[in-house]
Structure to design on (215 residues):
């Protein structure tokens, strides 16, 4: 069968893997938007099916209940906002201060995306009903960053550049310092400008290093 015939057959019959993946992503994105707009209780599987142009049977074949679809939609948002280990290693250099600044900028940028904003909103509004999404967000979103930072600080401590008794704790404290202000204000009327974020990050990194630098 030539290429054109294969394309025609794909359009007429079973969707390609890429098409199926695109439809799945559309389903999860649409579901998350509806959960955000209407809340979990008022969002229905029928409404999601209608919005995405699928039959209710198709959705129930994938997700036996609404809570399963909700968790899948949140998981997708977490995965799309996670800062990968490869990205973190790509911005690492021998200069600890420059590395910490680059890491902070990278994480803030990931959390400032549309997916990042939606994820923060859904965790804020629905974590009381689904407390597991808090741990899910940490395990898949924040833990890789925390582990990277702890290892980074441990190596610089071993080299004698800094003094950090608890690298894991220091990593968590650093994340709170650099992310707290900019991320908390994302999508709010008081959101920081890029220049303000840069000033915040540099000040937080200097303050952190001032506390761990060997005297």
């Amino acid at each position: 069968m030539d290429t054109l015939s294969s394309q025609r057959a794909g359009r007429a019959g079973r969707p390609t893997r890429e098409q199926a993946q695109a439809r799945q992503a559309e389903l999860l994105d649409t579901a998350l938007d509806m959960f955000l707009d209407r809340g979990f209780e008022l969002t229905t599987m029928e409404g999601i099916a209608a919005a995405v142009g699928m039959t209710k049977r198709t959705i129930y074949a994938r997700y036996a209940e609404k809570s399963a679809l909700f968790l899948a939609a949140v998981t997708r948002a977490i995965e799309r906002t996670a800062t990968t280990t490869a990205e973190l290693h790509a911005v690492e250099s021998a200069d600890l201060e420059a590395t910490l600044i680059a890491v902070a900028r990278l994480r803030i940028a990931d959390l400032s995306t549309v997916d990042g904003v939606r994820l923060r909103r859904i965790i804020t509004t629905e974590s009381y009903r689904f407390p597991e999404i808090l741990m899910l967000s940490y395990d898949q979103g924040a833990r890789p960053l925390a582990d990277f930072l702890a290892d980074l600080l441990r190596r610089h401590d071993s080299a004698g550049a800094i003094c950090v008794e608890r690298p894991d704790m220091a990593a968590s404290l650093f994340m709170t310092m650099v992310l707290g202000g900019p991320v908390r204000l994302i999508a709010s009327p008081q959101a920081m400008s890029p220049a303000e974020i840069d000033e915040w990050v540099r000040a937080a990194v200097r303050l952190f290093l001032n506390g761990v630098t060997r005297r």
Q: What stands out?
A: The first helix runs from residue 3 to 12. The chain has a mean pLDDT of 90. The chain has eleven helices and no strands. The radius of gyration is 22 Å.
